[in-house]
Amino acid sequence: xxxxxxxxxxxxxxxxxxxxxxxxxFSASRKHPRCLVRKRQPERRGRLQRFSSPAWRQRLRRQVxxxxxxxxxxxxxxxxxxGLTTAIALIEEYGWDPASVSIFEASDTVGxxxxxxxxxxxxxxxxxxxxxxxxxPEQKRLFRVTGAAYPDELKLxxxxxxxxVCLPNGTWAYVGDPLRSDLGDVWTTLLAPLGTIxxxxxxxxxxxxxxxxxxxNPNSIxxxxxxxxxxxxxxxxxxxxxxxxxxxxxxxxFYRGIFxxxxxxxxxxxxxxxxxxxxxxxxSLPDNGHxxxxxxxxxxxxxxxxxxxxxxxxxxxxxxxxxADRAVxxxxxxxxxxxxxxxxxxxxNRFSPKAQADIRKLLCGWLAAGADGVHETLQRxxxxxxxxxxxxxxxxxxxxxPRSxxxxxxAPSPxxxxxxPLVNNLCFPSxxxxxxxxxxxxxxxxxVVETALHQQLDPKDNDLLPGGELEALVRTQLYKWYxxxxxxxxxxxxxxxxxxxxxxxxxRLNGERFVMPNEDGCLDAGRLxxxxxxxxTPTANGAIHSGYRVAGGIAKAFSVxxxxxxxx
Length: 568
What we know:
24 strands, alpha+beta
């Protein structure tokens, strides 16, 4: 045998499993041969000293132990970003056999809430207004981003780094990033009737400071907790130095569109974190013909093409007892489904008494109420209406910068509480990514803040039907925005409305870390794990991060080291 090559061979024992989901049955009985090959190039020293260094012996010991571990089956419930990340991390970073990893998805495609529908007319409609924040660190890690370049297959197209604002008096203003805008937009921003010159100087300093201070370690922002009494500082308090005019005209509608909530309910840490991501990166949309759904679709294709993993679609897991007893379970579904499964787990004999107690504590605490996205306030609701217009581009009479987001400024009121417009923000997705609409049409996306009416949501969503109450209310507000362009608005055809219940979890303002239920998402070591954006920050980055954390927790339970770690 070549003296510079070390072979470690291990054949695992049979692993049998039977999975029954909604009347379907999957069976698996496989042998998992594991062959670990480690090549070592000759060094400039004696033959017997070649492998005698302590560092080399330590690496060898890790690899031998890892090769001897019989890795268990892993069952992942949910093919959203968190579930897909867990599978990818287990296979690519910890060496799990793809045949031992199964993903069960209740719907007919991947993505969870990150989905896109294609209409027969050729429009692409994301389920709720969503964008790609390119600077998210865990997202870049997942998509193997080098520098700032995402995979070419996604064909990301960027929004302008700024926003067009409709003020309560009917005037329009543009606010751009002074460090990434041309000179004309910088001058326009300085002259915009939003806040004072001192406000703009403060925002400019905040913009420069976050780029200089946190670019090397953005996650440190989430570790810096500012308490105000017994609760955490809110975004509104963090912006207290700005005049109400600028807060209500720009920051309130902008971050309401991101977090589906008010500044006084948003953690100042999370506000600063997303502010930093927008300062150092861009918001974009995929232009490859699959809308925002291109992201999970790309990951699913990677699992299939590179690892041969097939996702089981149309398989809703409603009973944990139907999953293999020895398999590791990862609950990566929506909060409502996860809560129901955890209620079963809290009394299931397959889990330890301590795990059952921890699950009951979680159910009685953070998941106590509102997990269905209808009652209480655990989940936020996102409502979006889509319209189609004639022509390849939106008319200049409606928007002079079609690649910018359009915001509706909050209006002051005698009570001191600003009045929130029904339409919070509007954009033209096809002006950013042309594939969102047919060649001779343009697409309009209107995000609605339902709390502006303080109304009870229609449980059957009849108000979202063409000609329904919500369409009429939206058109009424848009007529006020464009009083002289009513004929253009009347030509818009209503395409579809989406109301996404459970679009985001509400934020915790208790000063604790954005990690639940613990660092590795473990509820029972080697048996039960949970992940999703509700376990982390309520962002796509949080969902991905939770998937990585769970994969690391599973690997730790079985003494498996990361490939990158073991090669150091």
